[in-house]
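User: Sequence recovery, please. Input:
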């Protein structure tokens, strides 16, 4: 029995052919396509013979041959397609001179207008939004009300290394009802602590701030009454208070102050206290009690028990 691999190798081995004259691109493409079809047909016919081959080694040789023929056929098809496209582009470049002149006669203005129309407009970057605030809050601060008869209350504002900062960039403004501490350009940041609703009025002339190595201390001068200084329990008042033109808080209406006190007592009292206060506030609203002494109906609590 003749080995098929040997026959196939002899048939597919290259043979010397005489030199031919150069062929045109069209004829070369046709020749490549013809050889491609031959190899693909050979592969189909040889593959059909696999059904009659029993030996595994022989089947392997035949399958390798079929694979090789199909690869060569596919490669020749690609060569034919490339030659055909090259021939088409060459024929378009061989147009008569008149047609090329007509193309060159297009006005430059029209060409540039066409190019401008075809190019998409460049997107305009959105305008930069200004920062909502120049300052940021201090990391933390502490309030010290001091002693009952001390002349000041203190606010401690920790800030590591603030003692080395330019003192001209640390300011604190005082009014009778507020203070405003500003630290500018400290390690790339600016800080601000402002409070315009202090629990008590202060004396601006007796208020000051002190810069320490790692903190700022604000001292607010207390207002001195007839017998002693005002007593502070917290830094900020629970409710906003009206101020006059110079920043001083207007004196509260005595009746309104008593009503606020009653509301606080109602919120913090037990059930009996809430019932008593609720009845008293109802009578006060309906005109059954003296408006200047709403607590007169609270069972002996009028005038705070004679205080």
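Assistant: Recovered sequence (307 residues):
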């Amino acid at each position: 029995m003749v080995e098929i691999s040997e026959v196939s190798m002899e048939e597919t081995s290259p043979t010397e052919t005489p030199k031919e004259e150069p062929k045109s691109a069209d004829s070369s493409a046709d020749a490549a396509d013809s050889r491609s079809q031959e190899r693909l047909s050979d592969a189909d016919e040889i593959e059909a013979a696999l059904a009659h081959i029993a030996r595994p080694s022989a089947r392997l040789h035949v399958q390798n041959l079929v694979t090789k023929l199909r690869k060569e056929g596919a490669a020749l098809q690609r060569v034919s397609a490339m030659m055909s496209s090259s021939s088409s582009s060459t024929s378009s470049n061989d147009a008569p001179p008149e047609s090329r002149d007509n193309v060159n006669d297009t006005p430059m203005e029209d060409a540039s207008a066409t190019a401008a129309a075809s190019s998409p407009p460049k997107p305009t970057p959105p305008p930069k939004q200004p920062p909502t605030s120049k300052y940021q809050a201090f990391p933390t601060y502490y309030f010290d009300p001091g002693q009952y008869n001390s002349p000041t209350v203190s606010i401690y504002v920790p800030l590591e290394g603030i003692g080395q900062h330019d003192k001209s960039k640390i300011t604190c403004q005082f009014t009778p009802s507020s203070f405003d501490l500003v630290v500018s350009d400290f390690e790339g940041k600016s800080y601000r602590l402002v409070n315009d609703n202090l629990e008590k009025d202060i004396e601006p002339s007796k208020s000051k701030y002190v810069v320490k190595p790692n903190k700022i201390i604000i001292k607010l001068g207390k207002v001195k009454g007839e017998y002693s200084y005002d007593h502070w329990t917290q830094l900020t008042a629970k409710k906003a208070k009206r101020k006059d033109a110079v920043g001083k808080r207007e004196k509260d209406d005595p009746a309104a102050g008593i009503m606020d006190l009653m509301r606080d007592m109602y919120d913090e009292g037990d059930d009996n206290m809430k019932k008593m206060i609720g009845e008293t506030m109802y009578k006060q609203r309906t005109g059954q009690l003296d408006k200047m002494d709403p607590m007169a109906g609270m069972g002996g609590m009028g005038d705070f028990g004679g205080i």
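Residues 56-93 form the longest helix (38 residues).
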